[in-house]
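Run folding on both entries below.
>entry_1
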Amino acid sequence: IAIGKHGANLNEIKRQIGWAPKVIRTPSIPSKTVGEIRGYLRLVADERKSWLKKIGRRINREVSEGDNWVRLTALGGFREVGRSSALLSTKDSKILVDCGVRFSQDAGSPYLNLPEVLPFESLDAVVLTHAHLDHSGLVPILFKYGFDGPIYCTAPTRDLSSLLLIDYLKVAYGEGKTAPYDSSHIREMVKHCIPLRYGDTTDIAPDMRLTLQNAGHILGSSIAHFHVGDGVHNIALSGDMKYEKTWLFSSAHDHFPRLETLVMESTYGKRNDHQPSRKEAKRLLREIVQRSLDRGGKVLIPVFAVGRSQEVMIVLEQLMRNGNVPKVPVYLDGMIWEATAIHTAYPEYLNANLRNLIFQRGENPFLSEIFQNVDHVEKRAQVIEDPDPAIVLATSG
């Protein structure tokens, strides 16, 4: 209603008052994460205003004399899975791209102790490509040890990473482990985030501009394009990407005005790493669900809370709406429900088909009555003991 069809209401407001209003969507599914983040940012608005002025002065400092150069230092995630991080340096600036954790028996962190990185106060900025913990999991530790600069990411990345980081702490405490930071450092991270929309270009250092583009991986995931100097060099770091349209997102952006260097993730990128098509994956899922429900059973689908779970939800809703499988309850683990609620706050990041359903036809598949929130232990017991057929989407643990 506030925006109007094709932005008509916003354009009329802008025409009449001469100002461009900023509309913040209320999630269609109430989200504790989104509510707390927006409330916290209102609380620290004056502090952020002073800090942003300081960042502006730092960005607009004079560049030094001498030859221009660009260096990319691999800190983690190169020839391995996890702890993704890289340092992009010039003679006048240092930008950290991602800072993730590695989940394995020899779990570790990026090489943040290198002289090129330290002290953290010397970093001009952090660019966060997306919210998954192998890219975001150690960003709060930077604030624990002195970093006070900006984090550039999309608004969905800010919100989803907050959700996942808080859960990361809960899991660590629950397993009796010592977490590398606490919730206060996550709040600092949120306070220092400067959200960017896809396609917006902004100065992040005296000699560097940043543009984020859709990576097609999860909600708000970005390819980070850096324009260095006055046409000195252009480099893009893909983060995790999907070069194919999915049930949720458009395919990764690939039209750059100029690009000399591309650093691209290569998970499932070997010559023989063929993934089933969307059509084939949907057919296989339908067959499994149909076979299980015909026997009066339950289907347990293990999924990550962010990304894959929402894709499965879209497919299940479509199958049931079209009568391809019986309509049964689809129970969602509480973490999945909250992540989905965050998705409903940012429908503009979804693909054109979903945007058309939501904006033009008023049909949001995430709001389907088939989806049920399992938000407490007693509800889980009820789902298990209920003899009726059902589908359960659950995260690990």
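>entry_2
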Amino acid sequence: MDEIILTSQERLKIFKALCEHKNLTFNQLVKETNVQSNKLAYQLHFMTRKNFLVHAKGTYALTADAQQRIPYFSQILKKEVGVLPVILGIVRFKDKILLLQRKKMPYKGYWGLFGGKQINGESIPETIEREVFEECGLRARFERYNAIVHERLTLDNHPKHSFLFVITTLAVDSADAREQTEGKVAWFDFIETLDGSVSKVIPSDVYFLKTYTNSSAHIDHVVMSEHADDSLTLNG
């Protein structure tokens, strides 16, 4: 099939129609999107080849893999920048706290708490335990949730990044932390970290430590099941 160029708006219309309907025939897609049939056929063929679509019994439907990516595709196609959820971990051993010096923006070169993005299918404790191990080699154990905080980073008073932090506490049995690939790691005196004696610590992380180290928060974890007949059940 010869390459046919679709505009971003045409691709968005096709994707939007497939998100809003579980199954659509080709003619229904033509009606829903108002995209020329040759362009539509090309895009559907491309999406099927990339395993984004399944074509069966004369209808097209998003694959389960594609449905997992709906929130991300929507932001890209609409050119939206969303809030990024990040799991943070407070790792202490005796009177020390373990910090990571960031190698990447934002906050490149600053020391801060361990953390990262959640992989689909992980629980929050699984995420932060994995992140700590990947970043310093320690097998940390999740202990509790401390807080949920929304942080916005601005540049010249204009929004640059927006984060939703889930702050947690983890326990470790040793101080044998080693640098991996994410940046340098080091133990610092906890009190000196709070009073500003340690240079280049992310200011909001210092605030989190001062405010939430001894706090506890409740976060519910629920699992929903979607069935072939479109019914939903809440698992216990």
